[in-house]
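Duplicate of #3305? Posting structure anyway:
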Protein backbone atom coordinates (compact mmCIF):
# COMPACT_ATOMS: atom_id res chain seq x y z
CA UNK A 1 0.00 0.00 0.00
CA UNK A 2 1.43 3.45 -0.91
CA UNK A 3 2.53 5.71 1.93
CA UNK A 4 0.30 8.63 2.89
CA UNK A 5 2.70 11.29 1.65
CA UNK A 6 2.68 9.73 -1.85
CA UNK A 7 -1.11 9.36 -1.86
CA UNK A 8 -1.56 13.06 -1.05
CA UNK A 9 1.43 14.72 -2.72
CA UNK A 10 1.99 12.32 -5.61
CA UNK A 11 5.09 10.39 -6.59
CA UNK A 12 5.99 6.71 -6.33
CA UNK A 13 3.41 5.92 -8.98
CA UNK A 14 0.64 7.98 -7.34
CA UNK A 15 -1.22 10.89 -8.97
CA UNK A 16 -1.75 12.71 -5.66
CA UNK A 17 -4.47 15.10 -4.60
CA UNK A 18 -5.10 18.38 -6.37
CA UNK A 19 -5.62 20.29 -3.12
CA UNK A 20 -3.61 23.20 -4.49
CA UNK A 21 -6.64 24.06 -6.61
CA UNK A 22 -9.79 25.49 -5.06
CA UNK A 23 -12.76 23.13 -5.13
CA UNK A 24 -15.05 26.00 -6.11
CA UNK A 25 -12.82 28.22 -8.28
CA UNK A 26 -9.74 26.23 -9.32
CA UNK A 27 -8.63 28.46 -12.21
CA UNK A 28 -5.16 30.02 -12.25
CA UNK A 29 -4.89 33.81 -12.14
CA UNK A 30 -5.14 35.27 -15.67
CA UNK A 31 -6.86 32.20 -17.11
CA UNK A 32 -9.17 31.67 -14.14
CA UNK A 33 -12.45 32.63 -15.82
CA UNK A 34 -11.89 30.44 -18.88
CA UNK A 35 -10.52 27.51 -16.85
CA UNK A 36 -13.36 27.60 -14.34
CA UNK A 37 -15.83 27.57 -17.25
CA UNK A 38 -14.26 24.37 -18.64
CA UNK A 39 -14.28 22.82 -15.17
CA UNK A 40 -17.99 23.46 -14.66
CA UNK A 41 -18.79 22.43 -18.24
CA UNK A 42 -17.62 18.89 -17.46
CA UNK A 43 -19.27 18.76 -14.03
CA UNK A 44 -22.59 20.10 -15.35
CA UNK A 45 -22.53 17.55 -18.17
CA UNK A 46 -22.12 14.68 -15.70
CA UNK A 47 -24.96 15.83 -13.44
CA UNK A 48 -27.24 16.54 -16.40
CA UNK A 49 -26.90 12.89 -17.46
CA UNK A 50 -28.28 11.88 -14.06
CA UNK A 51 -31.18 14.32 -14.39
CA UNK A 52 -32.05 13.14 -17.89
CA UNK A 53 -32.02 9.54 -16.65
CA UNK A 54 -34.87 10.53 -14.31
CA UNK A 55 -33.02 10.57 -10.98
CA UNK A 56 -33.34 13.30 -8.33
CA UNK A 57 -30.41 15.69 -8.04
CA UNK A 58 -29.29 18.62 -5.92
CA UNK A 59 -26.28 20.87 -5.55
CA UNK A 60 -24.66 17.98 -3.66
CA UNK A 61 -24.19 16.15 -6.98
CA UNK A 62 -22.09 19.07 -8.26
CA UNK A 63 -20.13 19.17 -5.04
CA UNK A 64 -19.41 15.44 -5.23
CA UNK A 65 -18.15 15.71 -8.81
CA UNK A 66 -15.99 18.70 -7.82
CA UNK A 67 -14.40 16.66 -5.03
CA UNK A 68 -13.77 13.82 -7.50
CA UNK A 69 -11.68 16.12 -9.69
CA UNK A 70 -9.49 16.94 -6.71
CA UNK A 71 -9.08 13.54 -5.09
CA UNK A 72 -9.51 10.79 -7.70
CA UNK A 73 -6.72 9.47 -9.92
CA UNK A 74 -8.57 10.13 -13.19
CA UNK A 75 -7.76 13.84 -12.95
CA UNK A 76 -4.25 15.29 -12.94
CA UNK A 77 -2.98 18.85 -12.87
CA UNK A 78 -2.17 18.42 -16.57
CA UNK A 79 -5.68 17.35 -17.67
CA UNK A 80 -7.68 19.17 -14.99
CA UNK A 81 -9.53 21.49 -17.41
CA UNK A 82 -10.09 19.00 -20.24
CA UNK A 83 -13.90 18.68 -20.54
CA UNK A 84 -13.68 15.75 -22.96
CA UNK A 85 -12.25 13.36 -20.37
CA UNK A 86 -14.49 11.41 -17.94
CA UNK A 87 -12.52 12.36 -14.81
CA UNK A 88 -13.58 9.14 -13.07
CA UNK A 89 -17.29 9.99 -13.45
CA UNK A 90 -18.12 6.25 -13.50
CA UNK A 91 -15.99 5.24 -10.51
CA UNK A 92 -18.27 3.28 -8.19
CA UNK A 93 -17.93 2.41 -4.52
CA UNK A 94 -18.81 -1.16 -5.43
CA UNK A 95 -15.71 -1.30 -7.66
CA UNK A 96 -13.60 -1.64 -4.51
CA UNK A 97 -14.39 -5.30 -3.93
CA UNK A 98 -13.19 -6.15 -7.43
CA UNK A 99 -9.68 -4.81 -6.91
CA UNK A 100 -6.73 -7.14 -6.35
CA UNK A 101 -5.46 -5.20 -3.33
CA UNK A 102 -8.82 -5.38 -1.56
CA UNK A 103 -9.18 -9.10 -2.17
CA UNK A 104 -5.64 -9.63 -0.94
CA UNK A 105 -6.53 -7.69 2.25
CA UNK A 106 -3.62 -5.28 1.74
CA UNK A 107 -5.78 -2.15 2.02
CA UNK A 108 -8.23 -1.07 4.75
CA UNK A 109 -11.89 -2.06 4.68
CA UNK A 110 -13.74 1.24 4.15
CA UNK A 111 -16.99 2.10 5.91
CA UNK A 112 -18.36 5.49 4.83
CA UNK A 113 -21.08 6.94 7.03
CA UNK A 114 -24.05 9.20 6.22
CA UNK A 115 -26.80 10.57 8.45
CA UNK A 116 -30.45 10.51 7.43
CA UNK A 117 -32.83 13.45 7.62
CA UNK A 118 -36.59 13.12 7.38
CA UNK A 119 -37.21 16.63 6.07
CA UNK A 120 -36.16 20.22 6.54
CA UNK A 121 -39.57 21.19 7.93
CA UNK A 122 -39.53 19.06 11.06
CA UNK A 123 -35.80 19.39 11.73
CA UNK A 124 -35.29 23.13 11.84
CA UNK A 125 -34.50 24.93 15.05
CA UNK A 126 -36.97 27.80 15.40
CA UNK A 127 -34.17 30.02 16.73
CA UNK A 128 -31.70 29.23 13.95
CA UNK A 129 -31.71 29.06 10.12
CA UNK A 130 -29.73 25.84 10.31
CA UNK A 131 -30.98 22.27 10.31
CA UNK A 132 -29.92 19.57 12.71
CA UNK A 133 -30.10 15.80 12.72
CA UNK A 134 -31.26 14.14 15.96
CA UNK A 135 -29.02 11.39 17.31
CA UNK A 136 -32.08 9.12 17.20
CA UNK A 137 -32.06 9.18 13.39
CA UNK A 138 -30.67 6.28 11.40
CA UNK A 139 -26.95 6.25 10.65
CA UNK A 140 -26.33 4.71 7.23
CA UNK A 141 -23.13 3.07 6.06
CA UNK A 142 -21.62 2.33 2.68
CA UNK A 143 -19.23 -0.61 2.46
CA UNK A 144 -17.77 -2.34 -0.60
CA UNK A 145 -20.63 -4.86 -0.33
CA UNK A 146 -23.71 -3.22 1.20
CA UNK A 147 -25.68 -0.05 1.89
CA UNK A 148 -27.93 0.21 4.94
CA UNK A 149 -27.71 0.35 8.70
CA UNK A 150 -27.24 -1.82 11.77
CA UNK A 151 -29.23 0.73 13.81
CA UNK A 152 -32.35 -0.76 15.44
CA UNK A 153 -34.41 1.81 13.52
CA UNK A 154 -33.63 -0.11 10.32
CA UNK A 155 -31.40 -3.19 10.75
CA UNK A 156 -31.45 -3.85 7.01
CA UNK A 157 -29.13 -3.67 3.99
CA UNK A 158 -29.22 -3.77 0.22
CA UNK A 159 -26.29 -4.83 -2.03
CA UNK A 160 -24.21 -1.74 -2.73
CA UNK A 161 -24.54 -2.41 -6.48
CA UNK A 162 -28.31 -1.89 -6.16
CA UNK A 163 -28.26 1.12 -3.83
CA UNK A 164 -30.51 3.80 -5.30
CA UNK A 165 -33.26 1.33 -6.16
CA UNK A 166 -36.70 2.53 -5.07
CA UNK A 167 -38.38 -0.30 -3.17
CA UNK A 168 -41.67 -0.64 -1.30
CA UNK A 169 -41.18 -2.77 1.82
CA UNK A 170 -38.38 -4.63 0.07
CA UNK A 171 -40.15 -5.10 -3.29
CA UNK A 172 -39.89 -3.34 -6.63
CA UNK A 173 -42.82 -1.07 -7.52
CA UNK A 174 -45.44 -2.49 -9.89
CA UNK A 175 -44.20 -2.52 -13.47
CA UNK A 176 -40.52 -2.15 -12.56
CA UNK A 177 -38.57 -5.30 -13.40
CA UNK A 178 -34.94 -4.37 -12.65
CA UNK A 179 -33.00 -2.85 -9.78
CA UNK A 180 -30.93 0.28 -10.27
CA UNK A 181 -27.22 -0.21 -10.85
CA UNK A 182 -24.42 2.34 -10.91
CA UNK A 183 -25.94 4.78 -8.42
CA UNK A 184 -23.14 4.26 -5.87
CA UNK A 185 -20.85 6.88 -7.37
CA UNK A 186 -17.67 7.10 -5.32
CA UNK A 187 -17.83 10.89 -5.47
CA UNK A 188 -21.10 11.17 -3.56
CA UNK A 189 -20.86 13.80 -0.82
CA UNK A 190 -23.00 16.02 1.39
CA UNK A 191 -22.08 19.21 3.16
CA UNK A 192 -24.63 21.93 2.63
CA UNK A 193 -27.69 20.68 4.49
CA UNK A 194 -26.67 22.89 7.40
CA UNK A 195 -28.00 25.89 5.48
CA UNK A 196 -31.50 26.44 4.23
CA UNK A 197 -31.16 28.40 1.01
CA UNK A 198 -28.66 29.72 -1.53
CA UNK A 199 -28.23 33.03 0.27
CA UNK A 200 -26.93 31.13 3.28
CA UNK A 201 -24.40 29.40 1.04
CA UNK A 202 -23.14 32.75 -0.17
CA UNK A 203 -22.82 33.97 3.40
CA UNK A 204 -20.60 31.01 4.26
CA UNK A 205 -18.24 31.73 1.40
CA UNK A 206 -18.73 34.09 -1.53
CA UNK A 207 -16.93 31.64 -3.84
CA UNK A 208 -19.91 29.30 -3.49
CA UNK A 209 -21.85 31.60 -5.79
CA UNK A 210 -20.05 29.85 -8.66
CA UNK A 211 -21.32 26.46 -7.53
CA UNK A 212 -24.84 27.81 -7.11
CA UNK A 213 -24.61 29.43 -10.54
CA UNK A 214 -23.54 26.14 -12.10
CA UNK A 215 -26.49 24.39 -10.48
CA UNK A 216 -28.90 26.93 -11.95
CA UNK A 217 -27.62 26.08 -15.45
CA UNK A 218 -28.61 22.43 -15.13
CA UNK A 219 -31.73 20.86 -16.53
CA UNK A 220 -34.62 21.30 -14.04
CA UNK A 221 -34.39 18.54 -11.38
CA UNK A 222 -37.31 16.14 -11.16
CA UNK A 223 -40.17 17.34 -8.95
CA UNK A 224 -39.34 14.96 -6.10
CA UNK A 225 -35.76 16.24 -5.73
CA UNK A 226 -34.82 17.73 -2.34
CA UNK A 227 -32.35 20.66 -2.26
CA UNK A 228 -29.11 20.69 -0.24
CA UNK A 229 -29.06 16.98 0.59
CA UNK A 230 -27.89 13.86 -1.26
CA UNK A 231 -31.01 12.41 -2.94
CA UNK A 232 -31.20 8.61 -2.86
CA UNK A 233 -34.33 6.76 -4.01
CA UNK A 234 -35.45 5.09 -0.81
CA UNK A 235 -34.66 1.38 -0.87
CA UNK A 236 -36.26 1.12 2.58
CA UNK A 237 -39.57 2.88 1.88
CA UNK A 238 -42.37 1.45 4.06
CA UNK A 239 -39.93 -1.04 5.52
CA UNK A 240 -40.84 -2.34 8.97
CA UNK A 241 -37.77 -3.28 11.04
CA UNK A 242 -37.76 -6.53 13.01
CA UNK A 243 -36.95 -4.47 16.10
CA UNK A 244 -39.57 -2.57 18.05
CA UNK A 245 -38.31 0.79 16.72
CA UNK A 246 -39.81 2.48 13.64
CA UNK A 247 -37.71 3.69 10.72
CA UNK A 248 -38.14 7.47 10.70
CA UNK A 249 -37.76 7.82 6.92
CA UNK A 250 -40.02 4.90 5.96
CA UNK A 251 -42.56 7.31 4.48
CA UNK A 252 -40.04 9.12 2.28
CA UNK A 253 -39.77 8.35 -1.41
CA UNK A 254 -36.39 10.11 -1.38
CA UNK A 255 -33.90 9.13 1.28
CA UNK A 256 -32.31 12.42 2.39
CA UNK A 257 -28.69 11.68 3.22
CA UNK A 258 -26.47 14.28 4.86
CA UNK A 259 -22.98 14.56 6.29
CA UNK A 260 -22.34 11.59 8.59
CA UNK A 261 -20.67 13.94 11.06
CA UNK A 262 -24.03 15.47 11.94
CA UNK A 263 -24.76 12.50 14.21
CA UNK A 264 -21.20 11.50 15.11
CA UNK A 265 -18.17 13.52 13.99
CA UNK A 266 -16.18 10.34 14.65
CA UNK A 267 -18.40 7.52 13.33
CA UNK A 268 -17.86 5.01 16.13
CA UNK A 269 -21.30 3.39 16.31
CA UNK A 270 -20.86 1.31 13.13
CA UNK A 271 -17.63 -0.07 14.60
CA UNK A 272 -19.31 -0.86 17.92
CA UNK A 273 -21.77 -3.21 16.22
CA UNK A 274 -21.70 -6.54 18.05
CA UNK A 275 -21.45 -8.54 14.83
CA UNK A 276 -18.12 -6.84 14.10
CA UNK A 277 -16.65 -7.74 17.52
CA UNK A 278 -13.87 -5.16 17.40
CA UNK A 279 -11.07 -5.37 19.97
CA UNK A 280 -9.64 -1.87 19.45
CA UNK A 281 -10.91 1.29 17.76
CA UNK A 282 -8.55 4.19 17.05
CA UNK A 283 -10.55 7.43 17.18
CA UNK A 284 -8.73 10.30 15.48
CA UNK A 285 -10.54 13.52 16.37
CA UNK A 286 -10.13 16.49 14.01
CA UNK A 287 -13.26 18.27 15.27
CA UNK A 288 -13.32 22.00 15.94
CA UNK A 289 -14.86 21.88 19.42
CA UNK A 290 -13.07 24.79 21.09
CA UNK A 291 -13.36 28.43 20.10
CA UNK A 292 -9.97 28.22 18.41
CA UNK A 293 -10.86 25.09 16.47
CA UNK A 294 -9.24 22.22 18.38
CA UNK A 295 -10.76 18.89 19.43
CA UNK A 296 -12.12 18.67 22.98
CA UNK A 297 -13.93 15.34 23.22
CA UNK A 298 -17.36 16.41 22.00
CA UNK A 299 -17.30 13.53 19.50
CA UNK A 300 -16.94 10.91 22.23
CA UNK A 301 -19.67 12.59 24.27
CA UNK A 302 -22.00 12.38 21.25
CA UNK A 303 -21.32 8.65 20.91
CA UNK A 304 -21.85 8.15 24.64
CA UNK A 305 -25.21 9.93 24.41
CA UNK A 306 -26.26 7.89 21.39
CA UNK A 307 -25.31 4.53 22.88
CA UNK A 308 -27.12 5.51 26.08
CA UNK A 309 -30.35 6.43 24.29
CA UNK A 310 -31.36 5.55 20.72
CA UNK A 311 -29.20 2.43 20.33
CA UNK A 312 -29.22 1.47 24.01
CA UNK A 313 -29.42 -2.27 24.42
CA UNK A 314 -27.77 -2.85 21.04
CA UNK A 315 -24.34 -1.19 21.43
CA UNK A 316 -21.97 -0.59 24.34
CA UNK A 317 -19.47 2.22 24.85
CA UNK A 318 -16.89 2.66 27.62
CA UNK A 319 -17.17 5.43 30.22
CA UNK A 320 -15.81 8.77 28.95
CA UNK A 321 -16.06 12.34 30.29
CA UNK A 322 -19.63 13.54 29.84
CA UNK A 323 -18.83 17.17 29.06
CA UNK A 324 -16.15 19.26 27.39
CA UNK A 325 -15.36 20.77 30.78
CA UNK A 326 -14.58 17.29 32.14
CA UNK A 327 -12.29 16.58 29.18
CA UNK A 328 -10.41 19.82 29.78
CA UNK A 329 -10.17 19.28 33.55
CA UNK A 330 -8.70 15.80 32.96
CA UNK A 331 -6.03 17.21 30.65
CA UNK A 332 -7.10 15.12 27.65
CA UNK A 333 -6.89 17.76 24.94
CA UNK A 334 -3.24 17.35 24.06
CA UNK A 335 -2.50 13.65 24.48
CA UNK A 336 -3.90 10.25 23.49
CA UNK A 337 -6.04 8.36 25.97
CA UNK A 338 -7.19 4.74 26.24
CA UNK A 339 -10.82 4.32 27.28
CA UNK A 340 -12.40 1.02 28.24
CA UNK A 341 -9.23 -0.76 29.33
CA UNK A 342 -11.22 -2.81 31.81
CA UNK A 343 -14.49 -4.49 30.95
CA UNK A 344 -16.60 -7.29 32.31
CA UNK A 345 -16.77 -10.51 30.37
CA UNK A 346 -14.02 -12.60 28.88
CA UNK A 347 -12.91 -10.20 26.18
CA UNK A 348 -15.66 -11.19 23.76
CA UNK A 349 -16.89 -7.80 22.49
CA UNK A 350 -19.78 -9.41 20.59
CA UNK A 351 -21.60 -9.84 23.91
CA UNK A 352 -23.85 -7.11 25.34
CA UNK A 353 -22.22 -5.32 28.25
CA UNK A 354 -18.72 -5.46 26.74
CA UNK A 355 -16.91 -3.00 24.52
CA UNK A 356 -13.61 -2.58 22.66
CA UNK A 357 -10.78 -0.36 23.86
CA UNK A 358 -11.08 3.14 22.41
CA UNK A 359 -7.78 4.87 21.66
CA UNK A 360 -8.66 8.56 21.45
CA UNK A 361 -6.17 10.84 19.67
CA UNK A 362 -7.27 14.50 19.54
CA UNK A 363 -5.98 17.03 17.03
CA UNK A 364 -3.86 19.33 19.19
CA UNK A 365 -1.29 22.12 18.68
CA UNK A 366 1.89 20.01 18.92
CA UNK A 367 3.54 21.59 15.88
CA UNK A 368 4.39 25.05 14.64
CA UNK A 369 1.97 24.36 11.77
CA UNK A 370 -1.64 24.71 12.93
CA UNK A 371 -3.86 21.84 11.77
CA UNK A 372 -7.08 23.38 13.13
CA UNK A 373 -8.12 24.74 9.73
CA UNK A 374 -11.75 25.38 8.78
CA UNK A 375 -13.82 23.05 6.62
CA UNK A 376 -14.16 25.97 4.23
CA UNK A 377 -10.44 26.28 3.65
CA UNK A 378 -10.72 25.17 0.04
CA UNK A 379 -7.08 25.42 -1.08
CA UNK A 380 -3.77 24.19 0.36
CA UNK A 381 -0.38 24.80 -1.24
CA UNK A 382 1.93 21.81 -1.65
CA UNK A 383 4.08 23.12 1.21
CA UNK A 384 1.00 23.41 3.46
CA UNK A 385 -0.09 19.88 2.58
CA UNK A 386 3.34 18.54 3.49
CA UNK A 387 3.45 20.47 6.76
CA UNK A 388 -0.07 19.29 7.58
CA UNK A 389 0.96 15.64 7.12
CA UNK A 390 4.14 16.11 9.18
CA UNK A 391 2.16 17.76 12.00
CA UNK A 392 -0.44 14.97 11.95
CA UNK A 393 2.31 12.36 12.03
CA UNK A 394 3.97 14.15 14.97
CA UNK A 395 0.69 14.21 16.86
CA UNK A 396 0.07 10.50 16.27
CA UNK A 397 3.48 9.20 17.34
CA UNK A 398 4.32 11.45 20.30
CA UNK A 399 2.24 9.45 22.78
CA UNK A 400 1.83 10.65 26.36
CA UNK A 401 4.82 12.96 26.76
CA UNK A 402 5.06 15.57 29.51
CA UNK A 403 7.49 17.50 27.30
CA UNK A 404 5.47 19.19 24.51
CA UNK A 405 8.38 18.60 22.13
CA UNK A 406 9.17 15.12 23.40
CA UNK A 407 8.16 11.61 22.37
CA UNK A 408 6.90 8.88 24.68
CA UNK A 409 9.30 5.99 24.12
CA UNK A 410 6.75 3.54 25.50
CA UNK A 411 4.02 4.64 23.11
CA UNK A 412 4.60 1.83 20.56
CA UNK A 413 4.39 -0.73 23.37
CA UNK A 414 1.17 0.84 24.67
CA UNK A 415 -0.43 0.41 21.23
CA UNK A 416 0.73 -3.20 21.04
CA UNK A 417 -0.78 -3.85 24.47
CA UNK A 418 -4.13 -2.40 23.33
CA UNK A 419 -4.16 -4.43 20.12
CA UNK A 420 -3.78 -7.80 21.89
CA UNK A 421 -5.54 -7.08 25.18
CA UNK A 422 -9.02 -8.41 24.36
CA UNK A 423 -7.62 -11.44 22.50
CA UNK A 424 -5.41 -12.34 25.48
CA UNK A 425 -8.41 -12.07 27.77
CA UNK A 426 -10.46 -14.38 25.54
CA UNK A 427 -7.57 -16.84 25.69
CA UNK A 428 -7.53 -16.70 29.48
CA UNK A 429 -4.16 -14.94 29.68
CA UNK A 430 -3.53 -12.26 32.25
CA UNK A 431 -2.42 -8.80 31.18
CA UNK A 432 1.37 -8.50 31.30
CA UNK A 433 2.94 -6.36 34.03
CA UNK A 434 4.31 -3.93 31.43
CA UNK A 435 0.91 -3.49 29.82
CA UNK A 436 -0.78 -3.03 33.19
CA UNK A 437 1.59 -0.20 34.07
CA UNK A 438 0.88 1.55 30.78
CA UNK A 439 -2.89 1.18 31.09
CA UNK A 440 -2.76 2.48 34.66
CA UNK A 441 -0.91 5.53 33.34
CA UNK A 442 -3.87 6.45 31.16
CA UNK A 443 -6.62 5.39 33.56
CA UNK A 444 -9.26 7.99 34.44
CA UNK A 445 -11.59 8.34 37.36
CA UNK A 446 -14.94 9.16 35.74
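Output from current build:
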Amino acid sequence: MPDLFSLVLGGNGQVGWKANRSIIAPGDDLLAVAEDALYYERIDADVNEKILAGYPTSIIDLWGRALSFHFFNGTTNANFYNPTLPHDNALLFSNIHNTLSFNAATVPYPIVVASSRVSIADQTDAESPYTYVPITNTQFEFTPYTFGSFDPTLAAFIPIENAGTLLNNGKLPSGVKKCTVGYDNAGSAALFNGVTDNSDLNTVNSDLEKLVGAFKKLEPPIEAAVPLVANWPNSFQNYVPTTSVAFESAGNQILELVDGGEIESIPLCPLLVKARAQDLIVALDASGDTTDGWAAGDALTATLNRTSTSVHGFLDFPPVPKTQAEFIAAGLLDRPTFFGCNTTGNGDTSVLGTYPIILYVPNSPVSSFATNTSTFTLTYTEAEQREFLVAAQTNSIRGYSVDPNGVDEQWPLAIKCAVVDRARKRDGQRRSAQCQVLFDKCKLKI
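Confirmed duplicate; merging threads. The two ends are 40 Å apart (CA to CA). Strands lie at 112-117, 139-142, 146-149, 156-159, 230-233, 254-259, 280-285, 337-339, 357-362.
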